[in-house]
Automatic annotation (TrEMBL):
It comes from Adlercreutzia muris. InterPro entries: Asp_de-COase-like_dom_sf, MoPterin_dinucl-bd_dom, Mopterin_OxRdtase, Mopterin_OxRdtase_4Fe-4S_dom, Prok_Mopterin_Oxidored, TAT_signal. Keywords: Iron, Iron-sulfur, Metal-binding, Oxidoreductase, Signal. Residues 1-43 form the signal peptide. GO terms for molecular function: iron-sulfur cluster binding; metal ion binding; molybdopterin cofactor binding; oxidoreductase activity. This is Molybdopterin-dependent oxidoreductase. Belongs to the prokaryotic molybdopterin-containing oxidoreductase family. SMART domains: Molybdop_Fe4S4 (SM00926).
């Protein structure tokens, strides 16, 4: 049978409430008559507040979207149906740290029973994107997928099967942290395509302090211990609602809130001081603040001397630290313990578990100038000097601090105000606030979203090196959005090493166009997508649809609801909702392990991603590959010596529901100035710059040694496209969605019914646009139609859209069509804000 998918419309809260229970009851009873012929759920009858039978059951659920709040929910179940959600307290925080729930969490019932729920496997019968489907069985779907995968691998090589994910399920078994995907896809030697989002901050910060995780900052409950809280480009009231109350609590306790953001966000409106910096110039502002600190001789010299690379001598010929081996001194060999535990990365691949063992470590000590003028090894020096030069066999060497100061001197406030459009006197005031600690700098995703974003973060963490305000209550610099836990086991039964390295999603279009990667033949012909929606969330939608999907022999998507990505799939697999499966959550802003209970059986013909992987493994000829239960795999992930020492086991997590994974509360990284760099110090001078992701690119190594300001690729006055487009397109994380999740939630659409574009009235009037007009935003890459909303809090020359509306929710086009796929070769990060556009009244063509 051929069926056409059309987005549901016309639902209200009341009509939906009349639908959920009967649909769920029909599914539980096995009735086929109430299943929609279009493959999505239909509305029938359950009144709000109605209960049946002997009462309700309440299960512990966890909201697992990429706001990262991972808030606990009560899942109220009556007669096998989830009838509502409510907040549930955390046991790890006796002060009720995250005893909250937002509108998204309260509206979850719609996500479970909504009309766009995918009910059964489907095969595409029309053109890609047409929404024409044919219902098939699970057996047919798995056979067609695996038969085609076998054919593709036989013709194009093992690597020609690839898989990728988004961030739609922060779980350890069926979610984005699951080792089970590595168990299966490593077995068939598939290629992993890694998303390239929100990584510039990580590169900029971690190359200075070392890797303790992707997004690290003091626990937000520590905000109240700061004298001043700086928030750079983060609208916490909407994007990280779960953290907003910590900011409010801090203000109540006397903390001054300074928001640095081009846009008057809701957080900026609540700030004690709002600084409307020009987009993409955060690095220049931070460097100018450091200029004030240096010229006023207000830097923390003891911290710079004892805890940073400031006194290290740097060779002018190589850009490397002068080492004692250069001076004829043999490196030192010491015995260290290694292999016990290391920090987990966001891909859950970095954690290693085992008994500590002794290994040899070779240390070639950096050379420094001592107070007596002699060059010595760092451990031997009594008083390493911050300033000075040394001639090494005709090679001039200077201290890392002198090199930093030389760069900083280019950013006097009077000059920086022309770059970042912040008055010189304001820059001086900001510098004084940053010196008067304790002070916390919370970085968001704003400055991260340009091709100079690595340097914005590098500059900010370098400012912490100058002030010494890091690693103690109230003092820290970082992102702190969510964290992968430490101490977990990433190698479960059946896992083998990946044969091929991960490939950045930003490299995929070129691979698909050329069948080459890094100069070698590397065709990819099938992509499996889970827990994500790349058509909506990846930059440059038209490029992705035409070059990536258009060159695939088989595009498979597993999801529980129709998305832009599902629309283009060849085979659609119905995945179960979070609350239809149990899950261990090891990634969260709460720094907890959490256990989410299964509240109801999977609706319709949906299956958990874990069960889908088992079917795929059997179809590829490995029926015994995934042969343990969910509980057994989750036990393998958590039951490690490192966590056991903290009393954390899988059974304990299930019993307690949530367990904080640090010995101390609140968690404060970098305590006692202990950093994970080679020297154990803050290395604001990066001796050996590396790229975030190797895609065969070249980069300017000299530029990457120190934080610097340079123009982004496109979003600045005078850029190559400035003659045609003169508005910078920015996005905001809306409170009614998390990326594209909840985009089809009927409850929330009543509050937020259609795509809008916020613009300053002056920009609108210059283009003949009235408030409320439907306008077309366009550039060479694509276009998008939305309703114009005047907002004087939008910086002139900028436009702001709430991100991740689905394609069918626009009158034409979509936002991601407009976004550049150019990227910084070091950060290898999607540059969501680095775009120039123009706008005109829509002519409805």
């Amino acid at each position: 049978m051929t069926e056409a998918y059309r987005a549901a419309s016309g639902l209200t809260r009341r009509s939906f409430l009349k639908s959920t229970g009967a649909v769920a009851a029909a599914a539980a009873a096995g009735s086929a008559g109430l299943l929609a012929t279009s493959g999505v759920a239909q509305a029938v009858a359950y009144e709000a507040g109605q209960t049946e039978g002997d009462g309700e059951q309440i299960f512990c659920g966890v909201c697992r979207g990429n706001c990262s709040g991972t808030c606990k929910l009560n899942l109220h179940v009556v007669d096998g149906k989830i009838v509502k959600t409510s907040k549930r307290s955390f046991n790890s925080f006796p002060d009720g740290r995250v005893d909250r729930i937002c509108l998204r969490g309260l509206s979850q019932v719609y996500n479970v029973y909504g009309p766009n729920r995918i009910q059964y496997p489907m095969r595409r019968v029309g053109e890609r994107g047409s929404g024409e489907w044919e219902r098939i069985t699970w057996e047919e779907a798995i056979k067609e997928i695996t038969d085609e995968w076998k054919r593709i691998q036989a013709e194009y090589g093992e690597q020609a099967i690839a898989y990728t994910r988004g961030s739609g399920n922060l779980g350890a078994i069926s979610g984005v942290a699951s080792p089970m995907y590595n168990v299966f896809f490593n077995k068939i030697n598939a290629s992993m395509i890694k998303i390239a989002r929100d990584q510039a901050n990580t590169r900029g910060i971690n190359r200075v302090v070392g890797n303790l995780g992707d997004w690290v900052l003091n626990d937000p409950s520590d905000f109240k211990n700061a004298k001043t809280l700086f928030v750079w480009g983060a609208n916490i009231t909407d994007a990280q609602i779960h953290d907003w109350h910590f900011v409010a609590d801090a203000q109540d306790a006397g903390t001054k809130l300074v928001v640095i953001d081009p846009i008057m966000t809701q957080l900026a409106a609540r700030a004690d001081m709002w600084v409307p910096v020009k987009p993409a110039t955060d690095a220049a502002l931070a460097l100018s603040m450091m200029h004030v600190m240096v010229t006023e001789d207000a830097v923390n010299k003891p911290f710079l001397r004892d805890s940073t690379c400031a006194p290290f001598l740097v060779r002018s010929d190589t850009g490397k630290f002068l080492r004692m081996s250069d001076l004829g001194v043999e490196p030192e060999v010491i015995e260290v313990e290694a292999g016990a535990v290391s920090a987990a990365s966001s891909e859950n691949k970095g954690a290693q578990v085992g008994k500590a063992k002794t290994v040899q470590k070779i240390i070639d000590h950096p050379a420094v100038l001592d107070a007596d003028g002699a060059v010595k090894s760092l451990p031997e020096a009594v008083d390493p000097q911050l300033n000075g030069t040394y001639d090494f066999n005709g090679v001039s060497c200077r201290t890392a601090y002198d090199l930093l100061v030389e760069d900083i001197m280019e950013y006097a406030p009077e000059k920086a105000q022309d770059i970042c459009d912040v008055p010189a006197e304001t820059i001086v005031e900001l510098a004084h606030l940053a010196l008067d600690g304790p002070c916390t700098h919370r970085l968001g995703w704003g400055s991260n979203s340009y091709t100079n974003g690595v340097h914005a973060a590098h500059a900010n963490i370098t400012m912490a090196a100058l002030t010494g305000q890091i690693g103690y209550p109230g003092a820290g610099t970082g992102v702190g959005d969510f964290k992968a836990c430490w101490g977990i086991n990433a190698v479960v039964k059946g896992m083998t090493a990946a044969k091929y390295p991960m490939i950045s999603a930003l490299a995929l279009p070129e691979i698909m166009r050329t069948d080459k990667w890094k100069g070698e033949d590397y065709p990819i012909r099938s992509l499996y997508v889970y827990a994500g929606n790349p058509v909506s969330n990846q930059v440059n939608t038209n490029e992705y649809i035409n070059d990536v999907i258009g060159n695939m022999d088989l595009y498979v998507v597993a999801d529980y609801t129709f998305t832009d990505t599902v629309k283009y799939a060849d085979i659609v697999l119905p995945a179960s909702h979070w609350f239809e499966q149990q899950e261990l959550v090891p990634i969260s802003a709460t720094q907890c392990f959490l256990h989410s209970e299964k509240a109801i059986d999977p609706l319709y013909e949906s299956k958990s991603d874990f069960e889908i992987l088992k079917l795929l493994a059997a179809g590829m000829g490995y029926p015994d590959l995934i042969d343990l239960t969910e509980d057994e795999y989750m036990s393998q992930v958590v039951d490690t010596p490192a966590l056991g020492a903290l009393g954390i086991t899988y059974d304990a997590i299930k019993e307690n529901e949530d367990m904080y994974w640090y010995a101390e509360k609140p968690w404060i990284p970098w305590k006692n100035a202990e950093f994970r760099t080679e020297s154990g110090r803050m290395e604001f001078y990066v001796e050996n710059p590396t790229v975030q992701f190797d895609v065969g690119q070249e980069f300017d190594e000299d530029r990457e040694h120190l934080p610097r300001y340079f123009n982004p690729t496109e979003a600045y006055e005078g850029s190559p496209t400035w003659d045609k487009y003169k508005l910078i397109l920015l996005s905001e994380r809306p409170r009614f969605r998390v990326h594209s999740m909840w985009s089809d939630n009927g409850y929330l659409r009543e509050l937020d019914p259609e795509p809008t574009i916020k613009m300053n009235p002056a920009d609108a009037e210059a283009r003949g646009i009235a408030d409320g007009d439907y306008v077309e935003v366009y550039n060479d890459r694509g276009h998008c139609v939305a309703r114009a909303v005047f907002n004087e809090g939008i910086r002139p020359g900028c436009m702001v859209y709430p991100k991740s509306w689905q394609q069918h929710q626009h009158k034409a086009g979509c936002w991601s069509e407009l976004l550049t796929s150019e990227y910084d070769p070091v950060g290898v990060n999607e540059s969501y804000f680095d775009n120039l556009v123009e706008v005109r009244v829509w002519n409805e063509e």
